[in-house]
Design a protein that fits this description.
With 419 residues, this protein is of the alpha/beta class. The chain folds into two domains: 3-219 and 399-412, Aldehyde Dehydrogenase, Chain A, domain 1 (3-Layer(aba) Sandwich), CATH 3.40.605; 226-374, Aldehyde Dehydrogenase, Chain A, domain 2. 40% of the residues lie in helices and 19% in strands. Strands 10-9-11-8-7-12-13 form a seven-stranded parallel beta sheet, sandwiched between helices. Strands 5-4-3-6 form a four-stranded parallel beta sheet, sandwiched between helices. α6 links the parallel β3 and β4 (140-144). α2 crosses α7, α3 packs antiparallel against α7 (150-166) and α10 crosses α11.
């Protein structure tokens, strides 16, 4: 594939999209949503082929779960796309404005980032999430999905490009590197003349590779070692379904819970109850030495002592770490040591402890009395997300529409000159 040609086409398409009216983009996304539903049989058949090949190749169950599409998941993707379509267009939004003492009128207003390079693995939903968010914000995108999603992405991108052409936009606004050669990832990272930002969505190795080899700014995130701290004041019965939701509802995603920290004062009452409660869902546990004494009748079959590195593992499965801590300070210290700054929370009825937790835990999303599963663009009212950023520059947390814009300064005068 000629990536320079792909990049050049993307740059030109981005200029065309940047001039599009908000209503044009809304119509485009609604048309794409209709097209996805009309093409459901083709898309699901292509995905079934990918899933079959992934199983034959021995892909991990967590990866196969992320890869798989079914009618409800496709309908959810379409619903998110329609939600994005109906959201206000951030392009042109005035961030701030003022008139200077010399009479110059100065404002900052939002503009598209330009061309996004998005590298991701076994997640075909990302294809539509990125396409929808990019098009709504007037950005073009070059997509590089994993080899395991090749057939799914071909079908999805074909629908996107058909919708673009139907509405008079260049099909090259959303392009797909339709070749599993890993060397093309490195080549994409060198396209600084055409690509404005790289967004990797995958494991730690992918993020490290992009940081080390890219000549383009990289937004990293999406790796979540997530915690919930059960404070001594927590409503323990209410805490159980919150922890269950965070762990069980979809364990293969980055905002799923990895470690439950339990205050020493309630550990004897809460830990055995938590294990019993989650065992029914097939959850197994890695218990720190601090938690072992709270099973005086012997460890349940589902509980094993934690090994080295367990609290630095993003499980992406029905495994939950357990640790007993002496209080809020110890819980925060554990999170500072082991968290990836993605999603961490406290379950408490103590307002002062909640305030201190929010103040001192420096994660992209910090929770009080809620499941970590809400770190998601759609759940937080953004319509969808292109990634979850855990870095500090430009964007943190779910990256929705506004996070796919930058801004420019506009200065208006009356033939002003500088003295």
């Amino acid at each position: 594939m000629n990536l320079n040609e792909i990049g050049s086409h993307a740059k030109k398409a981005a200029r065309s999209l940047a001039r599009a009216a908000a209503e044009q983009k809304t119509q485009l996304l609604n048309s794409l949503a209709d097209r996805l539903l009309a093409s459901a049989e083709t898309i699901l058949a292509a995905n079934a082929r990918d899933v079959q090949l992934a199983r034959q190749a021995g892909l991990a169950p967590a990866s196969i779960d992320r890869l798989m599409l079914n009618p409800p998941r496709l309908e959810s993707i379409v619903a998110d796309l329609r939600s994005v379509a109906q959201m206000p267009d951030p392009v042109g939004e005035i961030i701030e404005q003022r008139t200077l003492p010399n009479g110059l009128r100065v404002r900052r207003q939002r503009v598209p980032l330009g061309v996004l390079g998005v590298i991701y693995e076994a997640r075909p939903n990302v294809t539509i999430d990125v396409a929808g968010l990019a098009l709504k914000t007037g950005n073009a995108a070059i997509l590089r999905g994993g080899s395991e999603t090749l057939h799914s992405n071909r079908a999805l991108v074909a629908a996107v490009q058909a919708a673009l052409l139907e509405h008079g936009f260049p099909a090259q606004a959303i392009q797909f590197i339709d070749d599993p050669d890993r060397a093309l990832v490195h080549a994409l990272l060198q396209l600084h003349e055409y690509v404005d930002i790289i967004i990797p969505r995958g494991g730690a190795k992918l993020h490290a590779f992009c940081r080390e080899h890219s000549r383009i700014p990289v937004i990293t995130g999406g790796i979540g070692i997530c915690h919930l701290f059960v404070d001594a004041s927590a409503d323990l019965e209410a805490a159980l379904p919150v922890i269950r939701n965070a762990k069980v509802q979809r364990p293969t995603v980055c905002n799923a819970l990895d470690t439950a920290l339990v205050h020493r004062d309630v550990a004897a009452q809460f830990l055995p109850r938590l294990v019993e409660y989650l065992e029914a869902d097939g959850v197994t546990f890695r218990a720190d030495a601090s938690a072992l004494p709270y099973f005086p009748d012997g460890l349940p079959a589902s509980v094993t002592p934690a090994g080295e590195g367990d609290f630095d593992t993003e499980w992406l499965s029905l495994v939950l770490g357990l640790k007993v801590v002496g209080g809020l300070d110890e819980a925060i210290a554990h999170i500072e040591t082991h968290s990836t700054a993605h999603s961490d929370g406290i379950l408490t009825e103590d307002e002062e402890n909640a305030r201190r937790f929010v103040e001192q835990v420096d994660s992209a999303a910090v929770y009080v009395n809620a499941s970590t599963r809400f770190t998601d663009g759609a759940q937080l009212g953004l319509g969808a997300e292109v990634a979850v950023s855990t870095q500090r520059l430009h964007a943190r947390g779910p990256m929705g529409l506004r996070e796919l814009t930058t801004y420019k300064w506009v200065i208006e005068g009356e033939y002003h000159t500088r003295g």
